[in-house]
Amino acid sequence: MIEAQDLTKTFRDKKRGEIHAVDAVSFRAQPGQIYGLLGANGAGKTTTLRLLATLLKPTRGSAVVDGYEVTREPEKVRTRVGFLAASTALYGRLTAREMIAYFGRLNGMSDAALQARIQQLADELDMHEFLDRRCDKFSTGMKQKTSIARTLVHDPAVMIFDEPTLGLDVMTARTIVRFVRDCRSRGKTVVYSTHVMSEVEKLCDVIGIIHNGRLLAEGTLEQLRSRYGETDMEEIFIKVVGAPHS
Ligand SMILES: Nc1ncnc2c1ncn2[C@@H]1O[C@H](COP(=O)(O)OP(=O)(O)OP(=O)(O)O)[C@@H](O)[C@H]1O
């Protein structure tokens, strides 16, 4: 479970002045649920996720992740969260299997547990073909699958995905979306950020629309459809954030 309350992050930038990247955001994501954070470029998605994963400290507000508060017990939070960031890096000289195992050991996993888990992740993410190849020769899709596997090797209760299908082909994206659904069916709390309307329609149980750092609307797809009188997510999104100035 994640409970964010009045979560706020303000950056001070020499040129731009004060930037309200995340502005009093409150939401709750439950186990067995995919919470979709939908927003355009610069809306505040990544900053929100980084606050939840304790990579940034909030300027104000709080977030409780699997029972632990992000500023009071960040180490505890980190053991409970798997965060797939857009920039999750791999070591080129390691194979995918070595890479995943390395992060598993960092998380205190035994060799037996690791073997079983790598097998499971390779099955679910369709990785067997390249599991023993070096990461520096990987396609974007192979890299992304390896990043997901290494991020989630310790099977955390809370899984945070920052635009995980960005730049991937249809087949690879589908494998990842199926994997995210499997996480939900295993009772994980999943937060999934995207700017792709069709992804939230297909995947997310609750959708939060974020714009200029503020959570402007939230609900199930059905609730948003009836509230805004539109069936298409793109139309709902435009109604919520306002049409762009031309
Ligand atoms: N370290 C930082 N210093 C200053 N400003 C920042 C910093 N990180 C993010 N911002 C600003 O905060 C705002 C929100 O950025 P954020 O990356 O959270 O958005 P996003 O929704 O993830 O967008 P994108 O899809 O483009 O990654 C933007 O205006 C961004 O320029």
UniProtKB/TrEMBL annotation:
PROSITE patterns the record matches: ABC_TRANSPORTER_2 (PS50893)
Gene3D superfamilies assigned to the protein according to its UniProt record, in alphabetical order: P-loop containing nucleotide triphosphate hydrolases
A Pfam family matched in the record: ABC_tran
GO molecular function: ATP binding; ATP hydrolysis activity
ABC transporter domain location: 2-237
SMART domains assigned to the protein according to its UniProt record, in alphabetical order: AAA
Name under which the protein is recorded: ABC transporter related
Organism: Opitutus terrae (strain DSM 11246 / JCM 15787 / PB90-1)
Lineage start: Bacteria, Pseudomonadati, Verrucomicrobiota, Opitutia, Opitutales
